[in-house]
Amino acid sequence: MSQNYEISQPLPPSVKRASTILQWSGNIGFWTQLVLGVLAAALLFLSLAGLVTQDKSSEGTSFSVFCSISGVIALMISTFICFRYKKIAQLMKNPEPKARPKKSSTLQLIRAGLLSNLVGIFLSIIGAEGFVGILWRKLSNIPQGAAVYDTGKLPTPSEILLLLANTHTISCHFAGIIVGLYLLDRLDR
């Protein structure tokens, strides 16, 4: 009765450290972006529902809405990439060196996450700036001390929710950028 025992090689300390860093960073990035992103998406779609039910929407909202939706889509991509960090960390624990992901492909994924966050934060800022301009235009057309009888000249709750959704999306992308830069700093050595 002969037993075939395989001697597994222990993981090198650098691989073990990289796996731990990817696992923790992936968890932090994933859950931060998921929780805040769900809140941002909910605010965005609530505000869009409010804009659709209004008789007339403010001029110039369509481009800002497009930028806001694009920022949330970029956030979903970034959240998925953070989830991939966790999966790569698990693959790195494989005792067979050839089965582990390459460092170059891992760094490429981190760069793709950073690019997704940078594009998303840019679009969200453009969307937020557009809504701030719309709100400023509405409020600047009201004379000081005048009673407002035409409520169409006042900002609507939907417009304020759109601005809030953009700021939440910007916060999510900022968290993703922090995670990506941390990973590049720790793993690109």
TrEMBL record:
Keywords: Membrane, Transmembrane, Transmembrane helix. InterPro entries: DUF3611. This is DUF3611 family protein. The chain crosses the membrane at residues 28-51, 63-83, 112-136, 160-184.
